[in-house]
Design a protein that fits this description.
This protein is mostly helical. 61% of the residues lie in helices and 0% in strands. It is globular, with a radius of gyration of 21 Å.
């Protein structure tokens, strides 16, 4: 084998090796969707932040005409996803309201997509479909919500905190993380949830 061939073979081997390392790091770095229910060990008892659903203000005009109109369009999809996953449709509506105000084209600064504001890596682990499509977005979002409810034994406060800040943050702080945005999010969803349960 001449020196040129050896050089080409060496370069090819190095390229393949680098590519393999990158792929391994990429796969390790992605949070895999766990198809098996795993319950997290969350210590019960007083928490530094505890939302009281009875102490919410639902007098605010949450649903103006345009939002109500959009909500009515997506109501059948929400009902179907709720029935399929055994999740309260009022909770799904509350999350969509807090996440996107029923705007299916919403994209956050961090890249969260659609009505239920799913992050691309989360969406990819749940479904290969287009997350800008309301049907796919809602169904994937509700499956993810159900997974969180199962992980946290139905604890809605921890579930919402994980939906907003991530499971690892809830584990780290053994409750709602001390982030103003997450605490505001949890409180807001509780407010919307109470509203939707009463209408």
């Amino acid at each position: 084998m001449d020196s040129d061939s050896m050089l080409i073979n060496s370069a090819g081997s190095i390229t393949c090796g680098i590519f393999s390392i990158i792929m391994v790091l990429f796969l390790i770095g992605l949070p895999a969707y766990d198809h098996q229910e795993q319950h997290l060990a969350i210590v019960k008892g007083p928490r530094p932040y505890k939302t009281d659903i009875t102490e919410t203000d639902i007098s605010k005009p949450y649903l103006n005409y345009s939002i109500k109109k959009r909500e009515s369009l997506f109501a059948p999809i929400i009902t179907q996803a709720a029935d399929k996953n055994n999740v309260d449709p009022a909770l799904i509506k509350a999350i969509i309201m807090a996440e996107s105000a029923y705007d299916p084209t919403a994209i956050s600064k961090k890249g969260a997509i659609g009505l239920m504001q799913l992050m691309p890596h989360t969406a990819a682990s749940l479904s290969p479909e287009d997350m800008c499509d309301p049907v796919h977005n809602i169904n994937a979002g509700v499956r993810y919500l159900k997974t969180l409810l199962n992980k946290f034994d139905g604890d809605l406060e921890l579930t919402l905190a994980a939906y907003n800040a991530g499971i690892s943050k809830v584990r780290k702080y053994n409750g709602v993380p001390p982030y103003e945005t997450t605490r505001y999010y949890v409180k807001t969803v509780f407010e919307y949830y109470r509203y939707y349960r009463e209408v």
